[in-house]
Write a structure and sequence with these properties.
Distance between the termini: 10 Å
Structural class: alpha/beta
Shape: globular
Number of helices: 6
Number of strands: 13
Order of helices and strands: EEEHEEHEEEEEHEHHEHE
Oligomer: single chain
CATH class: Alpha Beta
Number of domains: 1
Radius of gyration: 18 Å
Strand order of the largest sheet: 6-5-4-3-2-1-13
Amino acid sequence: MTIRFWGVRGSQPVSGDKTIRYGGNTSCIEIRCDDSLIILDAGTGITNLGNRLQDAPHSDIHLFLTHTHFDHINGFPFFKPLHKKTQSLTLWAGHLSEGKTIQSTLETLLSPAFFPVPLPKLKANIVFKDFKVGETFSSHENILVNTIALNHPGGATGYRIHYHGHAICYITDMEHTSQAPDPALVKFVEQADILIYDASYADEEFEKYIGWGHSTWQQGARLAEKANVSQYIPTHHYPGRTDDELDALQKKLSAWLPNALFAKEGLTITLRTP
């Protein structure tokens, strides 16, 4: 089971010499479970992943969206496998309110006012799967997916992906409401191998952004400790955070949780399966 980060920024992509080491693309994570491919979110990071898949194609991809704010879908139209007739893609979402579907939402994104190629013109075989957040289901044989509602404007979904005794939790775009971790969230991520968590802000900044729907790297550390998580990875970095600032936060985090790592583009972690 392998996890690779293709985009680790929140809110908007950034560029420049101060964001090279951690990267400037928005949220996208690749998870390989032997021959199965899962993608978490379709921020601008999915573009480079799509380029890689041009050289090493995968016929059956499952894409899980936490939600459909721009920074989590703005790479979707540029994902090259979507333009291949041989590509199958299943797209999952559970955050939308009644009467809305992920297909209709993406049809709006890929409409003439925003993008020149409409959704029906994409060549790939796309299957749209709307679920009710809180449900548990299987995306592939031997892969179990748990879901949880997150506190974010418009709604968002957290995921726990199980495969051969390992668990990866992806909890991003979630605003905490007290310093004590939410008991339901503790239970959801308990004893996970990897916790990937929304670290947009620091505790000392948080008050300015109440209502924006995000959390802090310290809150993620508290959650990881409380839930006995094996490794904590803060992501969704504030776009104005420089490499040097993230390095300084990494030193603080390492003193707290020695094996915790601030996410960087290209960071790859392998969990050995039996």
